[in-house]
Amino acid sequence: MADACNTCKPYGTCPPMVDDRTPFPAHTPVAMAYVPYQNMTEVYEPEHALQVGTIFPELDKPFLAGKGCRC
Fold this sequence. Notes:
By secondary structure, the protein is an all-alpha fold.
């Protein structure tokens, strides 16, 4: 995460990262994969799924190239 920050501003000018929130459950072991359960609801039609890259509407998210830096 710090590497992305350094691409936005000169090295060392980013504020310290103190956010201790995590998307993982408490006591998740280090280097252990965690994948939240996904309920099977509706799926896209095959033609539309090929266009957007997934059959699941919940995974159809916009791609924002270069917008990830928050410094």
